[in-house]
Predict the structure.
Amino acid sequence: MRLAVLSAFFGLSVACFTEPSADRMWRCSVEQPLCPEGQSCISDWCTKDGTALPDLAVVDSSVADMSTLPCQDGFPIGTQGVWACRGKFSATTTKASALCLSGYKLCADANRLTDAECSAATLTGFFFGEAPGMGAGSLSAKCAGIGNGWGSLWFGCGKVQGTTLTERAGNACRGFFPVTFCSNAVFICDYTDGHLDKQRNDDPRNGVLCCAP
């Protein structure tokens, strides 16, 4: 009977523990240094092994809170001050640019990212840059100009989860290769305006790319 009780207890303890997702920024401390696999606790933040903590002089580790970070729900991509900031957005509610905090702004290009960082298979969710595109398909996709199909797709990093909306473009736009197509769900486009603030994303797993000032 005692063995059965102990087994149930340890089974419940394991079931209640969930390792934190490795694609988010997590707080930690000397007393509670638990971080996702491949990360270590540095200056009260879980940081990927082998990389420096993103430039958060913007963050005082003794008083850091979400109000000092580039976004409320996000994580850094690369080491040049680019953050992937999750959240729904639309022209009538929270605009895309409002997901960027602390002076960060929508990334207009991928100059601070490598293609490997932007296209990594481990990057879950699609994060839009200020980069509207056009084209009948991914092979012909290019930066938006004048003509049929204007604004029918957008460039950024990552991929839309659970759908086939994201592909790799034949040519980069402003340094971005991943491209997501507009749809009547998930990412709904305003074909009359080429600003991300006028577009709509209904999936909270997606978001925007925010660049340091």
